[in-house]
Design goal:
Helices cover 41% and strands 14% of the residues. It is α+β, with helices and mostly antiparallel strands. A four-stranded mixed sheet has the order 2-3-1-4, with helices on both faces.
């Protein structure tokens, strides 16, 4: 699946975790940890980037291969589930399993997910929560090969249809999960 994301989507492959899990892992927002002039402004779409630390699992080699990134992603999901199941999760366990810098970027979900922010990070985490899945999701922006820009919704829908995938737009998720 990492190869498919890399080849078909083309964007940065990230793992999103809820804010409570990022806290359990003691993961900062990357922008607050960097002391460099390039971090002085905010993206136009939000007041803070969701990026935290990029990591590799310690049992990977370079971390960049599809196999290494898959290992890191699977282990992140398992660690997130462990932290979710055990309120006394030891941050030392996370540091024992992962190293930074790495090749899988961790994204911190907003504390109240869609209530605070309706980005891909929060949408993915909301879907996982609604489906009672592990509190970690892989997200990757689909890019258009011709323009290099984000893939249009109609092209993304066509891709999903061609490959037998379910297609959802963010508004559909927000509307379906909005309390009545």
């Amino acid at each position: 699946m990492v190869a498919r994301l890399r080849n078909d989507a083309g964007g940065l492959i990230c793992v999103a975790v809820p804010d409570r899990i990022a806290d359990a892992f003691e993961l900062p927002f990357l922008s607050t940890e960097l002391d460099h002039p390039t971090t002085d402004d905010h993206p136009s779409y939000d007041d803070r980037s969701a990026f935290s630390l990029p990591v590799n699992h310690r049992e990977t080699y370079t971390g960049i291969t599809d196999r290494d990134r898959t290992r890191t992603i699977v282990e992140l999901a398992e660690a997130a589930q462990s932290a979710d199941d055990d309120p006394s999760y030891d941050t030392g366990d996370f540091a024992t399993e992962f190293r930074s810098p790495g090749h899988v970027h961790i994204l911190r979900g907003a504390p109240e997910l869609l209530t605070n922010r309706a980005g891909h990070t929060e949408l993915g985490l909301t879907l996982a929560e609604a489906a009672d899945l592990r509190p970690a999701v892989v997200v990757c922006e689909m890019l258009d090969d011709d323009t290099g820009e984000a893939l249009s919704p109609s092209d993304a829908r066509s891709y999903a249809e061609q490959h037998g995938l379910v297609y959802l737009e963010g508004e559909m998720v927000v509307e379906a999960l909005r309390p009545e």
